[in-house]
Amino acid sequence: MKSSSLKKIVRSPAEWEEQAATWLSFPRHPKNWAGERGIQIKAFYFNLMYQIAKFQPVKFLIPKNWELPQEEANAFLKCRFAPQAYKIATNDIWIRDYGPFFVKKGEEKEIVQTNFNAWGAKFPPFLLDNKVPSEIAKKEKLPISDIPYIFEGGALEVNDDGLAMTTLECLVGKNRNNPKDLKKVINALSKKLGLRDILVLPKGLDGDHTDGHIDNLARFVKTDRIVVASEEDPSSPNYERLIEAKKLIEAWLKKQYGKKAIVDTLQLPPQKKMGKETLPASYMNFIFVNGGVLYPSYDKKTDVKAKAYFKSTFPDRKIIAIDCRVVIEEGGSLHCLSKQEPA
Predict the structure, then answer these.
(1) Domain limits at 37?
(2) pLDDT tens digits for 47-91?
(3) CA atoms within 13 A on the CB side of 53
(4) Measuring CA to CA, how many Å separate 151 from each of 104, 107, 132?
(5) Least confident segment among 76-90, 224-238, 243-257
(6) CB burial string 8-45: b at 16+ within 10 A, e below
(7) Domains in the chain: how many in total?
(8) N or C: which end of the chain has fewer CB within 10 A?
């Protein structure tokens, strides 16, 4: 049989692999980003674009009646890569969750989309966000297929060997998928995204509006190495659940890779309150770019530990801190508001 006739294997590239671009979505939610906070988030957003564009292309979604301000456009001319705007309507900034899953079939790139309903219909409207993968597929002329279940990008963490992690509350629950369909959801994700094993952890961080996305809890840093958030305060709701998560991850990763498996921990920054709500700040919400790692900064004391960890773990990458105190007020950070496109 000729090799060209063989079925091409689907795979989800790891985030540390070569990337074609980082996708972002311009902050435009009239309620969340109004007044002074609107000014602050735009300054944050343009700085993030500028930092990414030093390493690789940025593709960002903007409203159809909006143009990049001249001051920012001039600043981006100094970058190695000029950001590219796409006029695609959105409801909010969190493209990690409603944006496309990019997969590879051989050398070909494809898009997979899930159904997005703003984390269990908590924060409507979301209909425009739900259309984003198909709109990107049209503009990029990429084939697209569908996973007919509620699921978000920030709920899944993958390595380059077909392994993935998620949390149970992001798979099934109120205004999500029926608990009876749990196996069907896992099977659909595995088939469409090219995954051979998915570890389902019981809970994410306390206060996480997303029902506990994995990208605040634990991340792959290498094929056989994972970093897990840790909490030093025994009175914190996160203390016991993070200890349990670490034990489950250690057992699972050891089963996969034996003695080579490594599980690190990285202390959470202080979990501050906004009204009665806890803001789920986490250093797990870092992003890879070609030749670099951008990590969120929140608190001077714990930021020092985070910087040291990233420098020691990624000695060949440039490590850059991005102040995320503004964006965490809406419950997210760098990974939540970006989406990598593999090369």
Answers:
(1) 8-342
(2) 999 999 999 999 999 988 888 888 888 888 888 898 999 999 999
(3) 23
(4) 20, 26, 14
(5) 76-90
(6) eebbbbbbbeebbbbbbbbbbbeebbeeeeeebbbebb
(7) 1
(8) N
pTM of the entire structure? 0.95
Strand partners, 263: 226
Distance CA 151, CA 113 (A): 9
Assess if residue 91 is contained within a domain: yes
Tokens 């099977």 locate to 187
Stronger pLDDT, 20 or 2, i.e. the higher one = 20
Distance between CA atoms of residues 77 and 75, nearest Å: 5
Per-residue tokens: 110:
């494809």
Which pair of tokens denotes residue 172? Answer: 């099934």
The reply to whether 1 falls in a domain is no
Any idea how long the chain is?
343
Distance in angstroms (rounded) separating the CA atoms of residues 204 and 206: 7
To the nearest whole percent, how much of the chain has pLDDT over 70?
Answer: 98
3 falls within a domain: no
Tell me the two tokens of residue 188: 């659909």
**CB neighbour burial string for 82-101, b if at least 16 within 10 angstroms, e if fewer:** ebeebebbbbbbbbbbbbbb
Both structure tokens of 58: 């940025």
* CATH code for the domain of 35: 3.75.10.10
Three-state secondary structure of the chain: CCHHHCCCCEECCCCCCCEEEEEEECCCCCCCCCHHHHHHHHHHHHHHHHHHCCCCCEEEEECCCCCCCHHHHHHHCCCCCCCEEEECCCCCCCHHHHCCEEEEECCEEEEEEEECCHHHHCCCCCHHHHCHHHHHHHHHCCCEEEEEEECCHHHCEECCCCEEEEEHHHHCCCCCCCHHHHHHHHHHHHHHHCCCEEEEECCCCCCCCCCCCHHHCEEEEECCEEEEEECCCCCCHHHHHHHHHHHHHHHHHHHHHHHHCEEEEEECCCCCEECCEECCCCHHHCEEECCEEEEEECCHHHHHHHHHHHHHHCCCCEEEEEECCCHHHHCCCCCCCEEEEEC
